Amino acid sequence: MSRIGQTFTALKAHNKKALIPFITAGDPGKGLTVPLMHVLVEAGADIIELGVPFSDPMADGPVIQRASERALANKVGLKDVLAMTAEFRKTNTTTPVVLMGYANPVEHMGYETFALAAKAAGVDGVLTVDIPPEESAGMSDVFKAHGLDPIFLLSPTTPESRVEQVAAVAGGFIYYVSLKGVTGSANLDMDEVAQKLAMIRKHCDLPVGVGFGIRDATTAEAVARIADAVVVGSRIVSEIETAPEGECVNRVKQLVAELRRGVDAASK
Amino acid sequence: MKLTDLPDSRGHFGPYGGIFVAETLMAALEELRVEYDRARNDPAFIAEFEYELKHYVGRPSPVYHAKRLSEQYGGAQIYLKREDLNHTGAHKINNTIGQALLARRMGKKRVIAETGAGQHGVASATVAARYGMECVVYMGAEDVIRQAPNVFRMKLLGATVVPVSSGSRTLKDALNEAMRDWVTNVESTFYILGTAAGPHPYPMLVRDFQCVIGRECLTQMPELTGRQPDAVIACVGGGSNAIGIFHPYIPHETVRLIGVEAGGSGIASGKHAAPLSAGTPGVLHGFRSYLMQDENGQIIETHSVSAGLDYPGVGPEHSYLKDAGRAEYVAINDDEAMAAFHDLCRFEGIIPALESSHAVAQAKKLAPTMKTDQIILVNLSGRGDKDIDTVAKLSGIAL
Question: How far is CA A181 from CA A38, A59, A110, A229, B23, in A?
Answer without folding.
Answer: 30, 8, 30, 20, 11
